[in-house]
Each structure stands twice: as structure tokens, then as C-alpha cells.
Amino acid sequence: MSERKYYERFKKKILKADPNCWPYKIPDTLHLGGKKPGDFFLVIKGVPFLLEFKSTGKTLTRYQLYQATEFILAGGEALRFREGDETIDEFINRIFEIVKKRKEVKT
């Protein structure tokens, strides 16, 4: 399945799981100059995420690793979904587990 299909499926499922979350697909910049840091920004219950979707066998580029590191250092969470490693539902559950742990730390 293409990366585009995965994040379309992800957006539909994450909005169903939490209608108050904010998923934003970062526009593709192919041949327009500039690189994008990932595929999606997601804010769920106040926790910011940078998400990258990869097909089987694909890895993050150096630029994406740099951006993910900077995002984490700024207080966010950066995750990669790769086809074959987990399902979209498992990925969403992982996101909710991170949100739950971060909320527990604050209280």
C-alpha cells in the first residue's frame, strides 16, 4: 500500500478515536524547493507529534532524523509508521499510550 493511503487511513481512524485531535498533513514539496520534516503534525490532548509514514523497508532520511530530533528536543514526540512493523490501529494505540504517560507525568 502507498504511504499516501496509510496516512489517509490514519487520519480517518485518529479522528474517529479522538474527534478533538488536530491532524495536519504537511503538503508535499516535490519540485517546489525545500524539504518537509515529516508527513503529519498531530496534536492530541495537548501533546504535539511529528509523524512519518514509510513503505516496507524504507527508512528516515538524515534530514528527517534531524527534524525529528529537533522536534523531540522542543518538547514534542516524533514517530515513524512503517508498513509491516505494525498496523495503523497499533500505531494509534502507541500514540494514545504516549499521551497517557505524558499526562501522568504532569499530574
Largest sheet: 4 strands, mixed
- Order of SSEs, N→C? HEEEHEH
What sort of overall outline do the alpha carbons produce when their principal axes are compared?
Answer: globular
Which CATH class is shown? Alpha Beta
The CATH topology is what? Answer: Trna Endonuclease, Chain: A, domain 1
The CATH level-2 architecture is identified as: 3-Layer(aba) Sandwich
What tags apply to this protein structure?
single chain; 107 residues; alpha+beta; Trna Endonuclease, Chain: A, domain 1; 4-stranded mixed β-sheet
What does this structure look like?
With 107 residues, the chain is α+β, with helices and mostly antiparallel strands. The chain has one domain: 3-Layer(aba) Sandwich (Trna Endonuclease, Chain: A, domain 1), CATH 3.40.1350. The protein contains three helices and four strands; from the N terminus they run H-E-E-E-H-E-H. The chain has helices at residues 3-17, 62-73, 88-106; strands at 22-25, 40-44, 47-54, 77-82. Strands 1-2-3-4 form a four-stranded mixed beta sheet, with helices on both faces. The model has no long low-confidence stretch (mean pLDDT 90).
